[in-house]
Write a structure and sequence with these properties.
The chain is an alpha/beta fold and 269 residues long. Helices cover 42% and strands 19% of the residues. It is built from ten helices and eight strands.
C-alpha cells in the first residue's frame, strides 16, 4: 500500500506493506534506485509477519524531485517525517549504500528516534571517498566521473554502474529492470547525491549510534569497498559484521535467501 508524506511541500513516497505486521523494518534504498531495489525482501518478509516500509528518497522513484535538498541532514529529516507521520516505534532501520549513510545521519541527528536496531548494508560511511586523513574508500575522481557522466550521458553512466553493482550473474531482463529504476530518478538529484558523497562525512554520527547494529557487506563490493564495513564495525560499539562471501554491492540480491534469514533473525533477537 503506497502513500505520500508531505515534508515542507515535498511529497515523499512510502510503500507500506503489511501495516498490521508484528515487527517493522524501514528500508532506505541506495543510489540511484528506489524502494523497489528491496523487491526480494518485500516479496518474502511480510509472509513471516513483518511490516515492511520502503521510502523513496526525494529525487528518486515516485517521490517529488526538487532541485535542492540532497544533503544528509535534509534526507534524514525526510525519514524523521515519515516515521512521525506513520507513528513508527521500536523498528529496525535498514539502509543500503547511500541509504545506509542517511540511516547513520538519522542516528546522529535524530538520536535514533524510534529505532531499536540498525542494519547497515554496504553503507557509504563514514566517507565513500578517500580524504587526507582517511585513506580508505574510492578515489574522488571515481565520483567526479559519475557526476560528469550524469550530466553528459546519464543512461550510459547508469549502465556502467549496473555492471559493477552485482557479483552474481543477472539476466539481461534483470539488468534492464535495474537500469529503469535508475532512470526514474531526476538527473539533478542523481548528481546532487553524488556531490554529497564528496562534501559530507559521518564520523561523529557513527560514534553516536547506541542501538544493536548489524553490518552486512559483500567482500567483492566494487562500489563501497569492504574495508569501510570493518571501519564501521570498529566505530560502532554494539555492532556485528557479517561478510557475504559471494556478494558484491547488492547483498540483498546476490545472496537474497541468506540476507533475508539474517535480517529476520537479527530483528527477532
Amino acid at each position: 500500500m503506497g502513500c505520500y508524506v508531505n515534508v515542507n511541500n515535498v511529497n515523499i513516497y512510502v510503500e507500506d506493506l503489511n501495516p498490521e505486521g508484528k515487527k517493522t523494518i524501514v528500508f532506505l534504498h541506495g543510489w540511484p534506485g528506489n524502494h523497489n531495489l528491496f523487491e526480494y525482501q518485500f516479496d518474502k518478509l511480510p509472509q513471516f509477519g513483518y511490516r515492511c516500509v520502503g521510502i523513496d528518497t526525494r529525487g528518486f522513484g515516485k517521490s517529488d524531485k526538487p532541485f535542492y535538498g540532497y544533503d544528509y541532514n535534509t534526507l534524514s529529516d525526510d525519514v524523521r517525517a515519515v516515521v512521525e507521520t506513520l507513528g513508527l516505534r521500536d523498528f529496525t532501520l535498514a539502509g543500503h549504500s547511500t541509504g545506509g549513510a542517511i540511516a547513520v545521519r538519522y542516528m546522529g541527528r535524530h538520536k535514533g528516534y524510534g529505532v531499536n536496531k540498525l542494519v547497515l548494508i554496504a553503507a557509504a560511511a563514514p566517507s565513500l571517498v578517500k580524504r587526507p586523513n582517511f585513506p580508505y574508500g574510492v578515489d574522488e575522481k571515481v565520483v567526479l566521473d559519475i557526476i560528469e557522466g550524469t550530466y553528459n550521458d546519464r543512461p550510459q553512466m547508469l549502465r556502467n554502474f549496473g555492471d559493477r553493482f552485482f557479483f552474481q550473474h543477472t539476466s539481461q531482463a534483470f539488468s534492464d529492470w535495474f537500469f529503469q529504476l535508475g532512470l526514474q530518478a531526476a538527473g539533478w538529484a542523481t548528481a546532487a547525491v553524488a556531490k554529497t558523497w564528496i562534501n559530507e562525512v559521518l564520523f561523529a554520527d557513527l560514534q553516536a549510534i547506541q542501538v544493536p547494529t548489524l553490518i552486512i557487506h559483500g567482500i567483492h563490493d566494487k562500489v563501497v569497498p569492504f574495508q569501510l564495513a570493518e571501519i564501521q564495525r570498529s566505530m560502532i560499539r554494539n555492532s556485528t559484521l557479517v561478510p557475504f562471501k559471494f556478494s558484491g554491492h547488492a547483498t540483498f540480491y546476490d545472496q537474497k535467501d541468506e540476507f533475508n534469514v539474517l535480517l529476520m533473525n537479527f530483528t527477532e533477537r
